[in-house]
Each structure stands twice: as C-alpha cells, then as structure tokens.
Amino acid sequence: MLGEGAFGGVYRATFYVKGERKPVAVKVNKGNEKISTRNMIEDVCKEARIMRQYQHPNVVYFYGVCVEKEPIMLVMELANQGALDSFLKNEKNSVTLRDKLKYSLDASKGLEYLHQHGCIHRDVAARNFLMHKSVVKITDFGLSKQLSDLAHKYKLKDIQAKLPIRWLAPEVMVTATYTFKSDVYSFGILLWEIFMDGASPYPGMKLAEVRVKVKSGYRMDAPDRMPTFARNIMINQCWPQAPEDRGNMTEIRSSMESVLDGKVTAMGVRSMYMKT
Ligand code: ATP
Question: Which stretches make up the Protein kinase domain (predicted)?
Fold first, then answer.
C-alpha cells in the first residue's frame, strides 16, 4: 500500500499496456455505494476520457478508471518518492535551495498545463503534488478530486469541516466559487510550504482565526530563506486580495523560468536571498 486518503487506499500495481508491464498506482474506492449510481458512472467515464488526454511531465498521468463493478479504481502513474509535503519534511536536511526552486518551477508548469486545458484544480497544496525521480507532478485533479470530495461529503456531516481553509483564497471562503485565480492564490501557499520544508501554513493559528484574518487581508510573512524573486511572486502575483490583481499561471511560470533558466549558480542563489 502506498497511502490512504478520503477516497480510499492507494496501492502499487502492475498494468499491462500493449504487452508492456508498467508499475502504476491504483486508488481504490472504499466502497460507498452512493458513488456508483448510473449517472455517476457516466460522469466518471466522461471525466476519465478528458483526463487521459492530459500528458505533461509535471502532471501525474492518468491511465483510466475501472467502473465495471465495485470498488471503482483509478489507475495512474506511480510516483516513487510519494507526496511532496512528506518528502519536504522527511528530506529537509538534504533538500537544497536550488532543489526548492526547481520544485516550485515544476509545480508551476503542471498547474499552468491544467489551466491551459481548462481544468481548475481547487486543491493546490503540497500534499497534492507527488515526487517521481526528483520531478514534481501535480495530482488529485478532475475525477480524482471529484470522487474524494464525494467521499468526504458522505463521510462527514459537515462538509465545511474538510475544506482546506489554510489554502483557500479569501473570495472562496465567502462565495465557495473556485476560479483559475483562486488556484493561483493557493499556489502562493504552496510556495510558502516548499520554502518552509513542508510545514503547515499559519503555524500556531486555529482555522477560525485563519478564516477571519485572511478575509480581512492578513497574509503570512515570507519564509526567511525564500529568494527575493520567489517572495515577490508569492506576495505580488499570488496573494493580492482581489483575484483580478493576481497573475495567471503562465505569467508566474514564465517569471520563475526567466530567473531560473540556467542562472541558478551558487552565487546567483546567494544573491537572491537579499530582501528587497
Ligand atoms: P484525499 O483522498 O482527500 O484527496 P489525499 O490527497 O491525502 O486525500 P490520496 O490522493 O488518496 O490522498 O493519496 C494518499 C497517499 O497515497 C498520498 O499521500 C501518497 O503518499 C500516496 N499516493 C497517492 N497517489 C500516488 C501515486 N500516483 N504514486 C505514489 N503514491 C501515491
């Protein structure tokens, strides 16, 4: 077993594609009957067809879904280093600043790709990125997200209790409507997590306090070791209160790339520590 989420267990398995053996990860639904109504299965298959078209080095590849009988299973690319949040925590003594910059760029490319294909992720957070051979890949989008939302809904009386408050844009707390720009806000929280070795955002603050403060414009301080250009992206392009004042993922990816592309020398990184 690789891990467990609301939807169910995630297992390592072997998938045969055109005579070739492929190691894959399979998410197995815990078996909530309500998930498998006929309409639901049609929706699941429709979404699965869309997701199979997504192919990008920073997006976890989705092979397909088994809906013939319970339990529903989602088959996806296997990531050998697991979830980014636990990786950052466990490897904090070996992950360098250069690695963190590279993980941030990988993540921005994956999210940009989803946005270019019209997919709003709605749960951008380090736990929803996986590491494979030191490449960061976005996961838990589309079908996977819809099914885990459903699982939460049936499991918990109060759906609010499971909302990822610490990652939510202020307008989503009010309107419950997600947009590309609310993903951009959450991407800023992801940058904070990366430069804080996978720590949980708003340390020491309760959820109710986070909700009230973020709605009235409060933001976390940038991590000490975050390079200036990355903190500028986080604060000025991801975290403005008004969604229209935020950048889009293409602008954010391109700002990161222009600084990082072949320019991350030890000297460069050191000079990037300087605060503005
Ligand atoms: P939720 O079900 O609410 O979305 P979650 O995102 O924590 O919760 P899952 O996406 O079900 O849960 O994943 C649970 C764990 O399984 C992850 O934290 C990760 O360690 C492991 N995992 C998930 N997908 C893969 C994969 N493709 N390759 C390797 N490990 C995976």
Answer: 1-260
How far lies 102's CA from each of 123, 182, 217, 224, in Å?
A: 21, 23, 29, 18
User: Whole-angstrom Cα distance, residue 23 to residue 13?
Assistant: 6
Residues within a 6 A CB radius of ligand 1: 2-7, 10, 25, 27, 60, 76-79, 82-83, 127-128, 130, 139-140, 148
Q: Please, which residues bridge with residue 26 across strands?
A: 11, 75
Decide if 164 contacts 128 (C-beta within 8 A). no
- What is the reported pTM? 0.91
Structural tokens at position 129:
């990125």
CA 148 to chain centre: 14
Distance 241 CA to ligand 1 centre (A): 31
Task: Please state at what angle helix 249-260 crosses helix 180-195, rounded to 10 degrees.
Answer: 30
Token pair for residue 46? 């429709």
> What tokens does 132 get?
């494979």
- Residue whose tokens read 């006929």: 38
Min mean pLDDT across 40-44, 95-99, 200-204, 243-247 is at 40-44
Taking residue 131's Cβ as centre, other Cβ atoms within 10 Å add up to 20
- Is 34 flagged in the annotation as binding? no
125-177 confidence digits (pLDDT tens): 999 999 999 999 999 988 887 777 777 666 655 555 678 999 999 999 999 99
pLDDT, greater one: 13 or 269:
13
What percentage of the chain reaches a pLDDT higher than 90? Answer: 67
Mutate to test the pocket of ligand 1, among 4, 7, 10 (most ligand atoms within 8 A of CB): 10
